[in-house]
Amino acid sequence: MGTQRFTPEFKEEAVRQITERGYSVADVSERLGVSAHSLYKWLRSIRPDNSGHQAQDLLDARTEILRLKAQLKRTEEERDILKKAARYFAREPD
Q: What is the CA radius of gyration of the chain?
């Protein structure tokens, strides 16, 4: 038993039925006699790669985390200074 070969046009039409016409992968798989695994593989190969976009989002998130950590540290230092000042001024004069 050899594996069945499909033309690029057939693959594109199968993917189009899922992406543009709204059919489920199971429906298209059953109607066309193609495994769902193959359809998912075709979907991944035809859809544009979002890894660059995801990498940029990850970099932006890390940058934001570093900025927020620095802001938190500065705020904690300011709080500590204010606590010390409050203790100093709260002391009773001798």
A: 30
Sorted by sequence, the CB contacts under 8 Å of residue 24 that are 6+ apart come out as 18
Pair 40, 26: CB distance under 8 Å: no
CA atoms within 13 A on the CB side of 18: 24
d(CA 47, CA 30): 22
Of 2, 33, 37, 39, residue with least CA distance to 17: 39
3-state secondary structure of 84: helix
Long-range CB pairs of 10-16, under 8 A, 24+ apart, other chains included: 11/42, 11/46, 12/46, 14/39, 14/42, 15/39, 15/42, 15/43, 15/46
pLDDT band at residue 48 under the 50/70/90 scheme: low
Provide the whole-model pTM: 0.48
- How many Å apart are CA 65 and CA 19, to the nearest integer? 36
